[in-house]
Amino acid sequence: MNYYSTNGKAPIANLQKAVVKGLAEDRGLYMPEEIYKLPKAFIDDMPKMAFQDIAYNVAQNFFGDDVDGDALQDIVYDTLQFDCPVVKVTDNIYALELFHGPTLAFKDVGARFMARLLGYFLRQGSSVGCCNTAINKTVNVLVATSGDTGSAVANGFLGVEGIHVYVLYPKGKVSPIQECQFTTLGKNITAIEVDGVFDDCQALVKSAFMDEELNQHMKLTSANSINVARFLPQAFYYFNAYARMKALGKADELVMCVPSGNFGNICSALFGHQMGLPIKRFIAANNANDIFYKYLQTGKYEPKASVQTLANAMDVGDPSNFARIINLYSDNRLLSEEETHQRITSLISGATYSDEQIRETMRKCYSETGYILDPHGACGFRALQESLKSGEVGVFCETAHPAKFKEKVDEILGIDIEIPARLRAFMEGQKQSVEMTKNFEDFKAYLMRV
Ligand SMILES: *Cc1c(COP(=O)(O)O)cnc(C)c1O
């Protein structure tokens, strides 16, 4: 499969290059040239199949041209060593729990899949057409995080031979639960504690990618959510959701609601829909960062600085994957802006909620159903409650385990939520980190020495 850039000014890339580079030369996002439809017989059979088998079929559709079948099966099975169940919350609303992976958030699947795919390319010893050099020395993954991404990437790449991960995070600005998930791992994971804010971390990573001397010295890549190997595997979740709902006899008019920030997760669901997944319509639920919501209402995309909310993993003011959604529904910009907007609004609607509405939704849902929502899932649940029509059944993504936001959830609901064993295990580990200023010269000097 070949991948083209959403900006249309970069050379076509193969899968290896798209994965290793992440972003195309023209700063656009890679898109597969074709999205194959899955056979109807497969869709009909899914309710009888296990999550891993469904996922393997979907993975073949995306990656089967480029990765040997047995290897791809290993990658999928090794990535999905946990389930993603649907849990009934009300008569017509179900939670799709995407938090049963190692760091209790949905990003685990994309991060693990990408780590294993990169590991596969390295083992093949294939020369990757990026940066004019073959992959023959350690690949260094740089990732800036405000919390959740760092833990998913660090755990996904832990122990993968030939890859070293540097997680840059703002000192004192991530929660203790988040911090221990990437500072206690050791091995091929180094946590860099930057004396600054998240934007300083991101600036250090960007400067590193642009620094010629540094790129001569070491092979650098990113594990950002725009990477095709990170976002596409999330489609597995939606096929599984349909299969489980179909088995319950509830899939005839399925509405899928995705709490969204950078729009990678919902984008993978839309790719699933293009592959023939029978979902009637989608809802993108936002917190107070309502750029996509406004686009749906007005047809105008006006990015702005993000505002901080209770659902902080969705605090994004310029969602990267918006470009992919536009590309998908404009047939690579063949259609006009109006036609594209019309196609998008006929399939996707939006919602936006304040912190006060998130709190109120968490309390009401807990008292009426006993289900504990995390602040991100709360946006999804409420959007379904406000929009489902008679005959429709809604599924919303619970994108993180509520215990990941223990301080907030306890305070809002007046409970003492139990921390799952997996999370406690991280908290017992020894913190190791490298202190760093926000000055690029210091960071560069450090990398030049390793
Ligand atoms: C990353 C994240 C989101 C947003 O997902 P996108 O793919 O960026 O839209 C929502 N909830 C949680 C818990 C997350 O970590």
Q: Would you mind describing this structure in some detail?
A:
By secondary structure, this protein is an alpha/beta fold. The chain has 20 helices and 13 strands. The protein has helices spanning 15-21, 40-45, 51-63, 69-79, 107-124, 148-157, 176-183, 198-210, 212-217, 228-231, 235-247, 264-274, 291-298, 322-329, 337-347, 355-369, 375-387, 406-413, 421-427, 440-449, and strands at 3-5, 30-32, 86-88, 93-97, 139-144, 163-170, 189-194, 219-222, 254-259, 281-286, 348-352, 393-398, 434-436. The strands form three sheets. A six-stranded mixed beta sheet has the order 3-4-12-9-10-11, with helices on both faces. The radius of gyration is 21 Å and the shape is globular. 50% of the residues are buried. Mean pLDDT is 94; it is low at 129-135. The structure holds pyridoxal-5'-phosphate. Residues 105, 107, 148, 225, 259-265, 313-314, 376, 399-400 line the site of pyridoxal-5'-phosphate.
Properties at a glance:
binds pyridoxal-5'-phosphate; 450 residues; 13 strands; 14% strand; 5-stranded parallel sheet; 6-stranded mixed sheet
